[in-house]
Amino acid sequence: MRKVLLLVVVLAAACGKKAETTGDPGSAAEPAAPSTPGPHGAAAVRAANDMFKTVCAACHGENGKGDGPASSTLNPKPRNYTDKAWQASVTDEQITQTILMGGAAVGKSPAMPAQPQLKEQPDVVKNMVMIIREFGK
Ligand code: HEC
């Protein structure tokens, strides 16, 4: 989280510099840099829920039991999130890494896909980890 705040500060500083140079010929035509790093709050919750239903549930199942429609041919099977022993064995950080980098990068099945684009949306990833934790309760 501290890293994200730092990034925002750096971006803000960069934008400030840009504003100072608006007198330069040609600079007015430059498109403005996007100022929002990603969805926050309710939007992040919605994005995580939507993604879980449309992407993850195909393998992990609507109820997180690892029994989604695409799971039948997979070996090993997609993780059953309701497995309390598994829940206790992993940290939020490890779950985050698995989601962002995929199974192969963390020594798990390569069938577990990476979602590198979510690195830009830490709030969505955080909510996705919460969804996974919720299945274990
Ligand atoms: C194509 C099927 C597939 C999809 C889609 C998929 N997964 Fe997985 N996932 C797997 C498989 C298979 C494993 C088991 C890997 C293993 O045990 O080696 C797994 C394992 C995991 C694990 C557990 C890793 C561990 O520590 O054991 C997490 C967390 C996870 N997936 C999250 C997600 C999330 C979140 C999504 C959606 C963004 C998702 N997965 C989409 C197949 C899938």
In short:
By secondary structure, the protein is mainly α. The protein is built from 5 helices and no strands.
Low-confidence stretches: 9-23, 32-36
Q: Superfamily at the CATH H level of the largest domain? A: Cytochrome c-like domain
Name the structural class. Answer: mainly alpha
Shape estimate:
globular
Record keyword descriptors for this entry.
binds heme C, mainly alpha, globular, Cytochrome Bc1 Complex, Chain D, domain 2, 137 residues
Can you offer a commentary on this structure?
- This protein has helices at residues 2-20, 41-60, 84-89, 92-101, 122-135.
- By secondary structure, it is mostly helical.
- The relative contact order is 0.14.
- The two termini are 25 Å apart.
- The chain is built from five helices and no strands.
- The model is unreliable at 9-23 and 32-36 (pLDDT under 50).
- The chain folds into two domains: 1-37; 42-135, Cytochrome c-like domain (Cytochrome Bc1 Complex, Chain D, domain 2), CATH 1.10.760.10.
- The site of heme C has 25 residues, from helix 2, helix 4 and helix 5.
- Residues 51, 55-56, 58-60, 70, 74, 76, 78-79, 90, 94-95, 98-99, 103, 108-109, 111-113, 115, 128, 132 line the site of heme C (HEC).
Write the layout of secondary structure elements.
Elements: H1 2-20, H2 41-60, H3 84-89, H4 92-101, H5 122-135
The structure holds heme C.
